[in-house]
Amino acid sequence: MTDKATRIELFSLLAPPMRAFHLTWMAFFVCFFAWFSCAPLMPLIKSEFGLSVDQVANISIAAVAVTILVRLVIGPLCDRYGPRKMYCALMLAGAFPVLGAALSTGYESFLLCRLCIGAVGACFVISQYHTSMMFAPNVVGTANAATAGWGNTGAGAAQVLVPLLLAAIMALGAGQSSAWRLALVLPALAMPVMAIFYWRFTQDCPQGNVAELRARGIAVEGGKKGGWASFRAACANYRVWMLFITYAACFGVEVFIHNIAAIYYVDHFHLSLKAAGIAAGSFGLLALFARALGGWLSDKAAAHRGLGVRATLLCVLMVGEGLGLMCFAHEDSIALALVAMLVFGLFTHMACGATYALVPFIDRKALGGVAGIIGAGGNVGAVAAGFLMKGVGSIQQTLATLGVLVTVSALCALAVRFSSEHKAREAALRERALAAASTQGVMN
């Protein structure tokens, strides 16, 4: 704990925690850009392959379904092998299905590639694991939320930049069918390049890499050597499942919106593909500050009121998300719909940040398992929303129903409670880290 960073020094790359901080959100950005690069192209892909509404829903579900499984296992694997190795492996493997989507010839092949691309979404769990290993309790919520939020903007950037890239390719003379395929090459190539930087400039924790530390007989926080012991411990903790539901209701909705927003704006408001991409992208770009704001508020509230207030804050944010989503679903004016989307999007991103501001405090000995299960909850929510859309048959009605479900699920946040002993232990860890940082500052 004494080696963890107690401050976030944004303009410094000298210390391992800050290098991990910046490279984590950059890798996250690249992965999310690749994960959602197909979403703004869906109107063209739908037209070229003659897709039905049901098939579009299947593709939306496939884009997040496999992420559930990969997120569940990636956390314990981080406990076993360290976040550095797992992140690099994920980025290298993720490039292939993105290229495969560019080469797809019909619904079946595109669906398969979209399913495999979903594995890239597990990058989130690694990012949160890595920053949780690097930062002390007084700033870990802010660090987790900031890296996740800035990384999440990759999804919004894809909504805005991919249509512009498509237009540029077509301006050079490419046909529409070739242009959307070429537009997918950029995110596919970006992932292996990012993997090289991540391998070269990061380490697993402040003291070094997991394998080297264990070879020297040094215990590493985050989980037992096998990793699966941490997964079993996480499964037995009821708080994990409460946050599993809350994350399904905030990040699940976020992913669902990323996948259907462009089509919704084209079909419901009759916007052009470019205008729809900008409108949909504005939702994702809120993550530039909103998710970090949720984590920062959680850290500040906990500094004054203790660990328990983090869950109360999460409940309030989720109620705001649910009410805002219902307003968005019932707006028929494009201007009012955009305002409503930005309001509920603000609460959604903040709720995501507040959720993972809680994660490091659930069980420090099972960090990988806790982060993996709760992260998988987000994708369960996105898949459930996709099946809801299939059953309802209307995006607008689906959004209205989700608004009600999100509001009700806020009660799960209130159910997250900690014993007096747990609170005292975390308070002691926080004070110890701050005291060590103060002593180090005096010595320097």
**Which percent bin holds the helix content?**
over 70%
Order of secondary-structure elements: HHHHHHHHHHHHHHHHHHH
CATH superfamily membership: MFS general substrate transporter like domains
Q: Estimate the global geometry from the Cα principal axes.
A: globular
Percent of residues in beta strands: under 5%
Which radius of gyration do the C-alpha atoms yield? Answer: 21 Å
Label the structural class. mainly alpha
Q: Helix count, per DSSP? A: 19
The second-level CATH architecture is: Up-down Bundle
Largest sheet: none
Pfam family, one: MFS_1
InterPro entries: MFS, MFS_dom, MFS_trans_sf, NO3_transporter
Organism: Paraburkholderia podalyriae
Keywords: Membrane, Nitrate assimilation, Transmembrane, Transmembrane helix
Give a description of the structure.
It is a single chain. This protein is mainly alpha-helical and 444 residues long. The chain has one domain: Growth Hormone, Chain: A (Up-down Bundle). The protein is 78% helix and 0% strand. Helix 7 runs antiparallel to helix 8. The chain starts with 15 loop residues before the first helix and ends with a helix. This is MFS transporter.
Keywords:
444 residues; Growth Hormone, Chain: A
Describe, in short, the structure shown.
With 444 residues, this protein is mainly alpha-helical.
Helices, strands, pairings?
Layout: H1 16-35, H2 42-49, H3 53-81, H4 83-102, H5 107-117, H6 123-134, H7 140-171, H8 176-183, H9 185-201, H10 210-215, H11 228-235, H12 238-269, H13 273-285, H14 290-305, H15 309-329, H16 334-358, H17 367-392, H18 395-414, H19 420-443
Helix pairs in contact: 1-4, 1-6, 1-7, 1-9, 3-4, 3-5, 3-6, 3-11, 3-17, 4-5, 4-6, 4-9, 6-7, 6-17, 7-8, 7-13, 7-14, 7-16, 11-17, 12-13, 12-16, 12-17, 12-18, 13-16, 14-15, 14-16, 15-16, 15-18, 17-18
